[in-house]
Exocyst complex component
Amino acid sequence: MAENGDGLGTVPEHERILQEIESTDTACVGPTLRSVYDDQPNAHKKFMEKLDACIRNHDKEIEKMCNFHHQGFVDAITELLKVRTDAEKLKVQVTDTNRRFQDAGKEVIVQTEDIIRCRIQQRNITTVVEKLQLCLPVLEMYSKLKEQMSAKRYYSALKTMEQLENVFFPRVSQYRFCQLMIENLPKLREDIKEISMSDLKDFLESIRKHSDKIGETAMKQAQQQKIFNVALQKQNNVKFGKNVYINDRIPEERNEVELKRGFEEEDENEEEVLTVQDLVDFSPVYRCLHIYSVLGDEETFENYYRKQRKKQARLVLQPQSNMHETVDGYRRYFTQIVGFFVVEDHILHVTQGLVTRAYTDELWNMALSKIIAVLRAHSSYCTDPDLVLELKNLIVIFADTLQGYGFPVNRLFDLLFEIRDQYNETLLKKWAGVFRDIFEEDNYSPIPIVNEEEYKVVISKFPFQDPDLEKQSFPKKFPMSQSVPHIYIQVKEFIYASLKFSESLHRSSTEIDDMLRKSTNLLLTRTLSSCLLNLIRKPHIGLTELVQIIINTTHLEQACKYLEDFITNITNISQETVHTTRLYGLSTFKDARHAAEGEIYTKLNQKIDEFVQLADYDWTMSEPDGRASGYLMDLINFLRSIFQVFTHLPGKVAQTACMSACQHLSTSLMQMLLDSELKQISMGAVQQFNLDVIQCELFASSEPVPGLQGDTLQLAFIDLRQLLDLFMVWDWSTYLADYGQPASKYLRVNPNTALTLLEKVHRGMKDTSKKNNIFAQFRKNDRDKQKLIETVVKQLRSLVNGMSQHT
């Protein structure tokens, strides 16, 4: 029952599927049939049965329909057979009619074909004319392009190419000749690029060769402008009554001549003022830039141009190895650099983007560092101050020229301050030679004058004021020697020379005043002081010359205030200004005087030693000569003459020299007595030595130098005097009894000294006794004296030993 129930349920489903199959396109039957198999097992058998039943029903319906229309079909076939006979007749008639028409239309066909051919030819001719009219402008433009290439009008040729590509070629692009032209244009563009690049290379080579001429012209114009500005400023100052310091007026006469010469040159060149455009043809750059701009490759051109110019910059900045030898070497170096940057500045202002301000600034900073390093290295080799000064002037013109083109040059002026120090060093070396020559040529004697004219000549050279000398009648003498006015003049010349370097440095008067004073201080404290010290220490400089040197330094010291006034008059900076540097000439000349004084003391002692070495005592003489030794009298006479010369020296110097001489003479005489090589001395020799010491004491008491108080000089010989008195009086008992007492008569006699001399005298007495032993009556006295001497010797030795133990 269950199965029957399932079978009844599937019948309506099968009918639905059959309806879908009948009403659906055969391409979509698959899913419908699949549903038959997807339902229940064995359902497809039942569906097949249902399908067979449906087919049988349809066959029955078809058969019924055919049976219903069969008579009508038979009638139609019968009528069709009747019509066939009429159709055959009609076919025959149509065939005949067609034949007749064909025969009649053959001639028309021939004429029609002729007309068609003519029309085709006419149409072709019209088309050809139209196409030729379209192609002719292209060919004309291409011909124009060739003419422009031949005439080297490359920029116009590129414009023509653009017109061909944008306007003409699109109209005739289907033709082969157009394709050939299109293919040829890139080659023409490359040719133009190569040609324009070749022109650019020629231009770069040309400006490299002409850069020195360009720079020379630019520097000359800058210098002329500067001269004009200075003259205009001076004219305004004179017009308004101003007394303002102008850097470029030093020295006044020289600059006036230079200004006049500069204006004359300016007048000569006024008709022909050359510019960078006059010296260089920049058209290759413009053409090349325009060509590359049109080609859309402007960046490549810019990079190439900048790269090549940087290479040229490095070549220009590389100096010759011997550049420092002449000013022309520096001038060529500067003109080439100026020419290079003048060209770059011109390119910057006349082109768009080829050279930028950032690029030129970078290039200038690189060049400036190299320039400063080169100048610092090469200027260090310069030993000629004139060459250094010319180098400074070139640097100033160089800096002013480039500053006029907008390049920063502050570092160059900073370099000038370094070169200024070197310039001062070269000046100091030069003036050291000048001072040495002055000292060599000086006779170290007061300047004689015989008339008023000679007096005025000396006064004009050196600021000397002495009312007493003015009152004296001619002939008379200045106290200083010839070297003093010469040195004063040379110091002023040094100030002028140092001042020359300050021209155009754009510094204030205060700074220039400070520079002048510092350089002058270096001249005085280092150069002149060194020359004076070397002069003082020269062996051939005698006492008279040393005395004159001391007098000279005194007057030079007094003249320092006039040098300060001289600098003040130049710079218009008052000495009362807080930051004004003072001249150190006072200490310089004081040091030189002290050195000369010390040398006087030394040479005086050396002279005394020379005289003492001439002493020829007979230490065995039995009786004195009755007069002082000849060498000593000569020495005293020499000292008197020398101290007479010392009257021109400051009092303390002469007094110190006199005291030093007496003390040295006393010491030399004492050393002569105590010389270890001198083994014995007779009493006669002691008496003769005493006569010499008496002469020394007489000299000391004669006041050889004014100002010494009382017996000050005699105290220099007190040691000798007490020692000789002890032996002359033979007062040993008093000496031994009072030894160590403040009131002792022989307080200055050292036991060791007395012992040494006594032993020498003892040996002399022994030697004398041996020679005189034939006189028997004297033997007892001699023996007593010798015993006394031996006793005194023992006591002296005990004193000496006591002193050594105490020490």
Observations:
- The radius of gyration is 66 Å.
- The longest helix spans residues 43-150.
